[in-house]
Amino acid sequence: MPANTIIISTQNYPPAAGGIQNYMHELASALHQLGNNVKVVCDAPATEGQDRFDREQAFPVERLRGPKFLRRYNKAKLVRSQLKKADSAILICDSWKSLELLNTDKLDHVRCICIAHGMEYPEQIHSKHQRIAKTLARADLILANSEFTAQRVKPYAPDFSRVHILHPGVTPPAQPSEHDIASAAHRLGQHTPILITVGRLEARKGQDKIIEVLPKLLADHPHLLYAIVGDGPLKDDLMARAQALAVSSHINFCGRVSDGERSALLQKADLFAMPCRAVGDSVEGFGIVYIEAAMLGLPSLAGLAGGAGDAVVDGHTGLLCDGDNEEELYLAINKMLCDRPTLKTMGENAQHRAQSELQWPQIAQRLLDFVTKLEAKP
Length: 378
Known about the structure:
Order of helices and strands: EHEHEHEEHEHEHEHEHEHEHEHEHHH
CATH architecture of the largest domain: 3-Layer(aba) Sandwich
Strand order of the largest sheet: 3-2-1-4-5-6-7
Low-confidence stretches: none
Distance between the termini: 23 Å
Mean pLDDT: 93
CATH superfamily of the largest domain: Glycogen Phosphorylase B
CATH class of the largest domain: Alpha Beta
Largest sheet: 7 strands, parallel
Radius of gyration: 22 Å
Number of domains: 2
CATH topology of the largest domain: Rossmann fold
Number of strands: 13
Number of helices: 14
């Protein structure tokens, strides 16, 4: 089969940090590894280390600089000109915003894919509705990262039959060095069991709710430690609340850590806990961090809000609970920690699913399979 020409148009791309940045880069890399001719066009502003990063890629990356609107306009113009040169091509946009300014007239030889992550589709319909709906009408496929996100897209999609689920992939975890292992062991001490959350310290992640139930959990598990990995605007509030509840000695605020140390911490933990909840339009569209934990054999406790139910299979790779309900959260965590054989089985199930279904080459191939199934444009 001849190689596909694939142009990826994105606002978000490494070395800038972020979930969408990583998603688009890993997808581009996997599509390239499958033998396709891939090019990335991004309008992200200048970031330190950009040129070196781009030189290290096995496919071309072209960046557009300047004021935001001008970047978006020039990117759309550049992408169109390159699509016109191809006999056939696949265009992948990181969101509807990267498709909005692109004139698709006379591009019948192009299959257009729009990725949907979640929060870019407001739950309450407002002034952006017509803009989004008009843009999505040009997409042959809208690939949502979860069933939750697909339902968020539905009011904006002129033809919901174009919407399909494509879960994000996961990369193999970083191997911890001896220093990483020693640092993790120092942070965790002799505590057991170990709860861990990796993520930005913000309300929708639910670290605050876990702190609220720690006094009850410590009554059942007096040597428990809660490791909080990450940084964010709630750090001072979380530390103050831990002090007020007299549980500070059972919490380690690890802050940002290296990839290797994160792996070491996850390997030492018993349960990954992130009881996500919705805070306005801010909600987890999927939650790739649950799958990153699963790669290391760790089961998860996740919230019911958003797309976490696609990332954590309730009763199989972990449990789901109402992240706003402290009693339900306590009961779920305690149930998992008290049933060690089931906890171990859930971790094994989570690891098997992550390794067999959610690797980036598999995700990239599924995307190509969706394109293959498309009916020829009239």
